[in-house]
């Protein structure tokens, strides 16, 4: 058993194989994990916290009473956590209700949890933290290691100009870098500030134990913006009907080559035609409607702002404002009308807020529908219409873990 319950107690080395024969070792490991998770001394075992005590009699262990499982069941389940038995799979608690893995464009995003929630492996709490980073209060010019994404992955929310805050009570700021003239000094300051993303949480804060993995940003994007025809096709049709019906269209650009956008438009058109009512005529999708949908822009009517994070086919008013339902950036497309030969260009990728995953490079390459239909069919997809764009990496990980465990 470990004799030092403080925060500097040695943590179990994950690379070391467990030693099933030695029960004392396991107990020590568990103790260390508790010390690391709950900051040591307050959570030390009864035996240790009594060390140096004034000799008062130890309190009797509280009796565990539950109508749902017996003490023997609880102990067996705890044993299973340490030495899982391959022949027995039981859970003390039922599976928690799981969120859907994606939200199509026709459904609103689920309500976000509070930004203070410590849930490092969940995409929606990450989005809740990211949304606190506003362009007015958190500079988009900070280096990526201090940017909104890095800070939110480490558990921080934006509070005040270039300020960061956590529910553990820690507050600090990363402003003032622009005043440092010497480039080498600035690099070193940035390095030290970036180390603070983990170290500045208070003792006992869960974010000191586990930060969100970088891959969670992509997972959040796939959750809120699935690259499947079932989501992109209705969105593109609604953009065409509500936002692109006017005579003048915005001048626009995006990183996807136009022949790939044409392939996407054709695939989405075919998907919609397959599912339309008999006799209904869908207006032909073009590259702009397909590109706006691909880059996550939704028709936005200020009068119905609450409903602007999804489309309801066939309803909704015409509007020339589009908005991203992840970063909530709104763009009035009238600003990009060609005037006197010169015009501002609506960059479908770069108009997203700095931390928005739709602004990142190359994520759109995950969309198989950017390739000609014939090419995808040749590769053996049976039901092209229902084809998912990409296997979610998290799934592969779960499968791999299942094989090992
Ligand atoms: Zn904290
Ligand atoms: Zn966005």
TrEMBL record:
* Annotated Basic and acidic residues bias: 21-32
Q: State where composition is biased (Acidic residues).
A: 45-56
Q: Where is the composition biased (Pro residues)?
A: 7-17
Q: What's the short name of a Pfam family annotated to this entry?
A: zf-C3HC
- Domain (NuBaID C-terminal) ranges: 289-364
* Boundaries of every C3HC-type domain copy: 122-223
**Region annotation Disordered: residue ranges?**
1-64, 89-111
Does this UniProt record's set of keywords contain Transport? no
Q: What is its main location?
A: nucleus
* Transmembrane domains' residue ranges: none
Q: Which residues form the signal peptide?
A: none
Q: Does the keyword Nucleotidyltransferase apply?
A: no
Q: Which UniProt keywords apply?
A: Nucleus
Low complexity: bias regions: 96-106
Q: What is the annotated localization of this protein?
A: Nucleus
Query: What name goes with this protein?
Result: C3HC-type domain-containing protein
Native source species: Vanrija albida
Q: Lineage in the entry?
A: Eukaryota, Fungi, Dikarya, Basidiomycota, Agaricomycotina
